[in-house]
Amino acid sequence: MRRTRAALLGAATALVSERGTANVPVSDIADAAGVSRQLVYLHYGDRDTLLLEAALDLARRELTEPWEDDPTEAVGRGRALAVARHFAAHQGFYRAMFATASAFALHQVVSGLLAPLRRDALLARFGDTMAPRMADDLAVFITGGGAALMSDWLASGEDPLDPESMADRLEAIGRLLAGACATAAD
Questions:
Q1: Where are the alpha helices (DSSP H) in the chain?
Q2: According to the model, what pLDDT value does residue 75 have?
Q3: Mind listing the pLDDT tens digit for each residue in 123-134?
Q4: What sign has the CA pseudo-torsion 39, 41, 44, 47?
Q5: What is the reported pLDDT for 17?
Q6: CA distances (Å), 3 to each of 34, 88, 145, in order?
Q7: CA 7 to chain centroid
Q8: How far apart are CA 3 and CA 72, in angstroms?
Q9: pTM, whole model, 2 decimals?
Q10: Which of 21, 116, 122, 123 places its Cα 20 to 30 Å from the Cα of 141?
């Protein structure tokens, strides 16, 4: 079961990336994964759900798992560069996904995955001066804005994308917000 799901997620990601569109037939995904179309429907119900799960799996493995143990590492230049490199490496997949009717759902899924990590980083840095509800709200705000910025960069950035430049932009925004949070705490 686990092997089948991994094969389907990998096939979906690879085919969308390769073709530059999310309009990949379920039969093509099933063939690439070495399973029947019925198994795709059994596990995911439809192609859009499969593609959202593929995006969630990709983001979880590459964007959240490496930082779950130490939320303080979820901020700063290294983290901004890792995020930019992730999106640049999977540009074809995310560009296609952000151009679908499921873009809002993708935004929600990725934000839902990343906001708790951002919240933990905020509390680790400003815990004594920031109310938990404010950390929740700010985490959602930052994550949503970051997703919008990434979507715009993927859609309109010059090819090839420059992760170093995007990391600089993300880091500058992070410094600005951290400064505002520190000022608000005074």
A1: 2-19, 26-33, 37-44, 47-59, 77-89, 91-98, 103-126, 132-156, 163-185
A2: 61
A3: 888 878 888 999
A4: positive
A5: 96
A6: 11, 27, 35
A7: 20
A8: 33
A9: 0.84
A10: 21
Q: Does domain 48-185 have CATH number 2.60.40?
A: no
Residue 118 pLDDT > 60, yes or no? yes
**Structure token digits, residue 5:** 């799901």
Amino acid identity of residue 86, one-letter, is H
Please check whether residue 59 is in contact with residue 108, taking contact to mean a CB–CB distance below 8 angstroms.
Answer: no
Question: Could you tell me the CA-to-CA distances from 111 to 53, 95, 108, 127, 164 in Å, in that order?
Answer: 14, 17, 5, 21, 22
Q: How many CB atoms lie within 10 A of CB 45?
A: 10
Interatomic CA distance for residues 183 and 186, integer angstroms: 5
pLDDT in tens, 61-99: 888 877 666 655 656 788 888 889 999 999 999 999 988
What are the sequence ranges of the domains in the chain? 48-185
Q: Residue 116 corresponds to which tokens in the numbers above?
A: 């708790």
